[in-house]
Amino acid sequence: MQEKNFAFFPGCVLSQAAKESKMSLEAIAPILGLKLHEIKGWSCCGASQAQDVDPIATLVANARNIALSEAMNMPMLTTCSTCMLTLTRAKDSLDKGAKNRINEFLAKGNMKYQGSNEITSLLWVLYENLDTLKSKVIKPLSNLNVALFYGCHSIRPEKAYNKKESSTNPKSFEAVVSALGANIVPFEKRLDCCGFHASYPAEKSVKKMSSQIVGNADENGADCLVTPCPLCQMQLDIYQERYQDAMKSKIRKPIIHLSQLVGLALGLGNKELGLDLNIIDATKLI
């Protein structure tokens, strides 16, 4: 793959709570020929919830984010699945008729949404460039057993992503991790919801859901669980002690970001990948 430039949309969570995801992404990018140019002045996408409070304001905010990337003349890349879904849905609404109305708001800031930009994710960029990824692996993960957890917003709803990938039988994540040489274990919960967005209104149910995901990974012999979504990673990692205690489970399992797993196969260390920042100890994976 030739060096490719991206207008990088980190989203809120990579800026703070999951900064290890941003660290690892920025560590692997130059090795893979990805040049990330963080969008100056980006704002929160609304996390797929703000539109329920004020749909117009949320659409304006995301039209602005996309317009900022268009001005950079680069495709827009994010590694947050929820940001990916929210931005993609906004683009769809704008392209199907809302553009003129929303541009009236953007004009007040001397901005304009054109509809010229592609929005993509780290997972899909890696999937579309498997040969390059394989060629950069210097430490195949043949001794690592991993459970792959897609998370809802990486693949659902399928129509939001123009059926880019099946939501019931996706293959991108498996293909990417196979390229790294890791052993993918059977994992019945791979397409389940982690419960992140329901943590407050349905706390008890979410604790049970999260515990079952970690338990299923352990039952199938996984050394760790990997996800392309930083919100899923947060839910399953940061709160793991809490929900496992509530479910009276002694199982503790490292939950790592896709970018961290890629980094391990590229020969990068714990500090470079931020593995020492994960809550459940992931440093022993190396």
UniProtKB/TrEMBL annotation:
Keywords associated with the record: Oxidoreductase
Gene3D superfamilies assigned: 1.20.1050.140, 3.40.50.11810
Domain of life: Bacteria
DNA-binding recorded as keyword: no
InterPro entries with a match to the protein in the record: Cys_rich_dom, HdrB/HdrD_reductase, SdhE
Pfam family, one: CCG
Keyword Ribosomal protein: no
Domain Cysteine-rich: 7-87, 146-237
NCBIfam families for this protein: MFR_anch_SdhE (NF042965)
Name the record gives this protein: CoB--CoM heterodisulfide reductase iron-sulfur subunit B family protein
Source species taxonomy: Bacteria, Pseudomonadati, Campylobacterota, Epsilonproteobacteria, Campylobacterales
